[in-house]
């Protein structure tokens, strides 16, 4: 089965695309997009992979669901398109970067600039129905994205995984920590951040320290 995804990932994930569950998932997603307003746009469903080819990936950030408001989701977790107001979690991410990296708060919430440096911004579920958070969960996406994480773990070395919040932390079991680095903290959502579980985690400077030790280019956050 052919899926419109970056060729380097297509090669690694072809076995998944051929699985019965994935074929059912494709049918479900096609029907949902035909019958309802869904996000992100069809061309952006696999944007995380297209912007960060397999062999260029250095860092993995795991989100849960795409944003479900108009014009927000662009296929990269936590990211919104240019000109879209920043959702609360993204505001807190940028606040932490401002403190941690002493960088000014950015105008644009579009994280393509991270993805193009090798940050895979992976939601566990890649599509959602408008205004219905979690509406495409448990349809097969999680099985697919778990396979993505396992593939990265098995076939890469020295990837920095950033796991924010309880949902993302459950993915630790998929990662070989003898080969990779895992940083965990609370979620950047206001609920978690306001309880002191997000701010001060210094994940952005810590990621660059790890990359520097491995002789890899740093991320310009």
Q: Main β-sheet: number of strands, strand sense, barrel status?
A: 4 strands, parallel
Number of strands: 6
Distance between the termini: 36 Å
- Please bin the fraction of helical residues: 25-40%
| Mean pLDDT figure | 97
**Category by helix and strand content:** alpha/beta
Which shape, going by the Cα principal axes?
Answer: globular
Task: Describe the fold and architecture.
By secondary structure, the protein is of the alpha/beta class. It is built from nine helices and six strands. Helix 7 links the parallel strand 5 and strand 6. The termini are far apart.
What's a quick, concise take on this entry?
With 221 residues, the protein is of the alpha/beta class.
